[in-house]
Inverse folding.
């Protein structure tokens, strides 16, 4: 556990293991206080900048040891990128570089000196703590022995940001949600199951006083959730339909639902994923549910004046003699019939019943998030999620929340004409369209199950996981897009 403190100290009177100092790109000459600091450090900072040709580029950093009895052991120069049009995300990237360096250099205390972004010390403090906390997070649950026996960063001090306790606490609450999502996504399918997802939901609900209902298979049958249950029927593990509700004290300003795809494993079903298709990575297929639960954990602590429903139809997509056959017809809980032309397009089937359920809750908006299609990965690459909505206002709300979080989305078209690709001869629709526009037909499929509520869909197949260290995300689960969801609920 790292402790964060805003302190009323400048770089001149800070003492500790590592001091990180931010620079804008092309503005690395040492003047004023920094010239004084350099003097105090016997020219070490100037030397570092010159020798490493440090230019202040976004995310760049340079570290060196400070010799001779200095109260600072290491000095870290961190780059903020260009000063004009600078984004809060540049601050996070800079802090990530500092935290990474401090960890590597086995520093226990880290001081961070950055300019205030946009005259907004709250946002600055929050972003610094977010980035440090997310960078320093380490998940060693599945190691027999911890790899990092050595020192970890114990204290991070935010220089000249005294009095920002509230912003710091906020960041910590949000990060606890992001890190929960990361842990859920990182846990493999023999550890994270529909049962354990239900247990996690129950733990969150108990801790934060949420209402919770976990619908067992029989109840789902009663509700006619044929699409969800069709996917679940090959698994030896019973499905769990999870619904948690956060209700604020007093009248809620707004009511919303967050619906996450919760496939604890996706084998593809009888349309089995072949070798080389990434079948061994399909534990991540509950990333939508993981982020939904992460958002719930954060919201439970932040207590906004908004009622939030957290929903996931959790199961595995497996193969067995009980598996749905390619070609089967299923009936969803809104009565629509679906021809299963590919059992690997299972996420949309589980979401269909979850969306019908959410649509009946009389909420003002539904956001669903799902590791839905490989096609979206092809379209937008590793870092960007797809966003679909018939509602421009809701899309603008999400865009604003994402601008603030630094998590990236790109709005995609809900091209109605493409629904033709899902035409079925005998059923109402097929679950899979042609290869071309695969993420769009998936979104159009989901749209059939939302009748009256404003709705937005996020395809997060790519950014829930990263194959290499990137900024404040280390290789593995990222916790995407918990921070955006939280901002959205808070109206930020
Ligand atoms: N869970 C996958 C999508 C996925 C792919 C997530 C890569 C993360 C990384 C989804 O259930 C799936 O299998 N989609 C198919 C749909 C196809 C059968 C129409 C796909 O994308 O290939
Ligand atoms: Mn699939
Ligand atoms: Zn899937």
């Amino acid at each position: 556990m790292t402790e964060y403190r805003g302190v009323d100290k400048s770089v001149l009177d800070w003492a500790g293991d590592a001091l990180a100092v931010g620079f804008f790109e092309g503005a690395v000459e040492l003047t004023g206080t920094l010239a004084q600091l350099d003097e105090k450090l016997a020219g070490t900072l100037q030397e570092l900048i010159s020798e490493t040709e440090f230019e202040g580029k976004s995310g760049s950093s340079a570290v060196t040891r400070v010799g001779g009895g200095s109260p600072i052991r290491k000095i870290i120069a961190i780059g903020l990128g260009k000063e004009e049009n600078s984004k809060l995300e540049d601050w996070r990237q800079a802090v990530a570089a500092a935290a990474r360096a401090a960890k590597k250099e086995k520093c226990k205390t880290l001081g961070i000196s950055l300019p205030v972004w946009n005259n907004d010390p709250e946002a600055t403090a929050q972003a610094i703590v977010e980035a440090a906390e997310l960078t320093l997070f380490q998940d060693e649950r599945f190691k027999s022995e911890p790899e990092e026996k050595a020192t970890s960063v114990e204290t991070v001090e935010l220089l000249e940001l005294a009095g920002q306790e509230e912003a710091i606490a906020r960041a910590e609450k949000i990060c606890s949600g992001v890190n929960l999502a990361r842990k859920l996504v990182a846990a493999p399918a023999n550890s994270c199951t529909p049962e354990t997802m239900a247990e996690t939901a129950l733990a969150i609900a108990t801790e934060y006083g949420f209402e919770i209902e976990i619908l067992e298979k029989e109840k789902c049958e009663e509700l006619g959730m044929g699409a969800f249950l069709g996917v679940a029927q090959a698994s030896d593990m019973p499905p769990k339909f999870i619904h948690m509700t956060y209700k604020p004290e007093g009248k809620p300003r707004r009511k919303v639902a967050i619906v996450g795809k919760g496939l604890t494993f996706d084998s593809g079903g009888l349309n089995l994923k072949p070798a080389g298709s990434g079948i061994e990575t399909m534990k991540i297929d509950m990333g939508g549910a993981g982020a939904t639960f992460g958002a719930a954990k954060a919201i439970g602590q932040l207590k906004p004046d908004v009622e939030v429903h957290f929903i996931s139809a959790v199961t595995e997509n497996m193969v067995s003699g009980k598996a749905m056959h390619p070609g089967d017809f299923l009936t969803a809980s809104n009565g629509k019939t679906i021809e299963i032309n590919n059992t690997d397009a299972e996420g949309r089937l589980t979401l269909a019943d979850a969306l019908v359920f959410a649509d009946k809750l009389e909420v003002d908006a539904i956001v669903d998030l799902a590791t839905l299609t490989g096609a979206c990965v092809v379209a937008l690459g590793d870092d960007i999620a797809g966003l679909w909505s018939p509602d421009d206002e809701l899309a603008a709300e999400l865009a604003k929340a994402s601008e603030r979080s630094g998590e990236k989305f790109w709005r995609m078209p809900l091209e109605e004409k493409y629904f033709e690709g899902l035409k079925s001869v005998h059923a109402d629709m097929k679950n899979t369209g042609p290869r071309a526009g695969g993420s769009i037909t998936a979104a159009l499929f989901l749209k059939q199950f939302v009748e009256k509520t404003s709705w937005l869909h996020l395809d997060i197949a790519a950014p829930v996981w990263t194959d290499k260290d990137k900024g404040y995300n280390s290789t593995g689960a990222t916790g995407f897009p918990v921070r955006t969801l939280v901002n959205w609920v808070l109206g930020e």
User: Anything to note?
Assistant: The mean pLDDT is 98.
